[in-house]
Amino acid sequence: MPSEKRLTDRSAVNRSIRLRWIDSAGRNASAQGEIQNLGRRGMGILLRERLQKGATVQLTERDLQLVGKAIVRFQEDRKGRYYTGLEFLGGLLAPHELLASGQLA
């Protein structure tokens, strides 16, 4: 098993999220994913699509007020779905109040 490379802790979260990106053919693409964990600098999600490592994605999740961009840092095949590790661009995307409440410690 690879060593842990995360710089901050993540908390378990079970929410849907919409991702958008430009595919290798230059077309707009999108997918619905399931957030598995979330922290100040990134998140892990399950997707049905394979994304290229280093790709930039737009993400939107209204309840957690996540809006912004992230880079695909990791992707692992998990029986037809892909666990995808994302690193936020520009740091924290969720409101500070949400993190301060202990919901996403």
Word description of this protein:
With 105 residues, this protein is mainly beta. It has one domain: Beta Barrel (Thrombin, subunit H), CATH 2.40.10. Helices cover 5% and strands 55% of the residues. It is built from 1 helix and 6 strands. A 6-stranded antiparallel beta barrel has the order 1-2-3-6-5-4. A hairpin with a 4-residue loop joins strand 4 and strand 5. The longest helix is centred in the C-terminal third of the chain and has 5 residues. The model has no long low-confidence stretch (mean pLDDT 80).
Beta-strand level of the residues, as a percent range? over 45%
Distance between the termini: 25 Å
Q: Estimate the global geometry from the Cα principal axes.
A: globular
CATH classification class: Mainly Beta
What fraction, in percent, of the residue positions are helical?
Answer: under 10%
Helix/strand order: EEEEEEH
- Please give the domain count: 1
- What is the architecture at the second tier of CATH? Beta Barrel
Number of strands: 6
Class derived from helix and strand content = mainly beta
What is the CATH superfamily?
predicted glycosyltransferase like domains
Mean pLDDT metric: 80
Entry summary:
The protein has 105 residues and is mostly beta strands. It has one helix at 96-100; strands spanning 10-22, 28-39, 42-47, 56-61, 66-78, 81-88.
Layout: helices, strands, pairs:
Layout: E1 10-22, E2 28-39, E3 42-47, E4 56-61, E5 66-78, E6 81-88, H1 96-100
Antiparallel strand pairs: 1-2, 1-4, 2-3, 3-6, 4-5, 5-6
Feature tags:
105 residues; mainly beta; Thrombin, subunit H; 6-stranded antiparallel barrel; 1 helix; 6 strands; globular
